[in-house]
Amino acid sequence: MDLTLWQYQFRIIMLGDSTVGKSSMLKRYTEDLFMECLNQTVGVDFYVHFLEVEPNVRVKLQFWDTAGQERFRSVTRSYYRNSVGGLLVFDLGNRTSFDHIEEWHQEVLEHVQPHAVLFVLVGHKSDREEAAERTVSKDEAEKLAGRLGVPYVEASSKTGENVTAAFELLTRRIYQGLLSGEVQVRDGWDGVKSSEPRRPSQLSPTGESAKEDKKCAC
Ligand SMILES: Nc1nc2c(ncn2[C@@H]2O[C@H](COP(=O)(O)OP(=O)(O)OP(=O)(O)O)[C@@H](O)[C@H]2O)c(=O)[nH]1
Ligand SMILES: [Mg+2]
């Protein structure tokens, strides 16, 4: 199978304060690497990963890794509109980063209208729990996730715990949104692209029709 073939492309944006570990999550997910010292992101970085969401349905994930620092906000805001998914990341040992999650969520919702954007909330650096560095309880984080109507995952890029699970959960949510019609491929919007002219609702539950006419759209 040609690994560059894909049926859908989803654009996903990383959101959260500086140093919560957004770039580290992407490095772990796309390269299985962790670095103790990582440069702060300047503006926006770009990562790609492929995921098979069901047999013969491959999704190209394009990640926009935004800088959490306030001074880059005008640059990073311009990426919100063309995103279909967002990972809202806070550091379990940094209370302020948790307090800012609702602002990140609200800001994206304001810019993405009228398109749908789906989120997953990530309590990051879960490895720090053993060092008694946790300042946000699981209960509080789950309550916030409930208010925002998004799933919650605790993860660590250092140990690798739940990093893949968080990205896959978001990808599968978006794919389910496509199948249900909550998310739609639209002209003039780059959040989701399809390499096929037909709608996902025309696919059989097993993705049978997608098998017939795959095209290279890389
Ligand atoms: N203990 C621990 N440290 C982590 C983890 N993930 C990242 N870090 C460290 O946290 C620091 C910041 O990580 P980054 O990934 O650069 O954070 P960021 O959110 O991309 O920051 P900006 O680019 O400034 O927005 C780095 O020193 C990482 O090594 C983790 O899971 N556990
Ligand atoms: Mg970064």
From TrEMBL:
<keyword id="KW-0547">Nucleotide-binding</keyword>
<comment type="similarity">
    <text>Belongs to the small GTPase superfamily. Rab family.</text>
</comment>
<feature type="compositionally biased region" description="Basic and acidic residues">
    <location>
        <begin position="189"/>
        <end position="199"/>
    </location>
</feature>
<protein>
    <submittedName>
        <fullName>Uncharacterized protein</fullName>
    </submittedName>
</protein>
<dbReference type="Pfam" id="PF00071">
    <property type="entry name" value="Ras"/>
</dbReference>
<feature type="compositionally biased region" description="Basic and acidic residues">
    <location>
        <begin position="209"/>
        <end position="218"/>
    </location>
</feature>
<dbReference type="GO" id="GO:0005525">
    <property type="term" value="F:GTP binding"/>
</dbReference>
<dbReference type="InterPro" id="IPR005225">
    <property type="entry name" value="Small_GTP-bd"/>
</dbReference>
<dbReference type="InterPro" id="IPR050209">
    <property type="entry name" value="Rab_GTPases_membrane_traffic"/>
</dbReference>
<feature type="region of interest" description="Disordered">
    <location>
        <begin position="189"/>
        <end position="218"/>
    </location>
</feature>
<dbReference type="InterPro" id="IPR027417">
    <property type="entry name" value="P-loop_NTPase"/>
</dbReference>
<keyword id="KW-0342">GTP-binding</keyword>
<dbReference type="GO" id="GO:0003924">
    <property type="term" value="F:GTPase activity"/>
</dbReference>
<dbReference type="InterPro" id="IPR001806">
    <property type="entry name" value="Small_GTPase"/>
</dbReference>
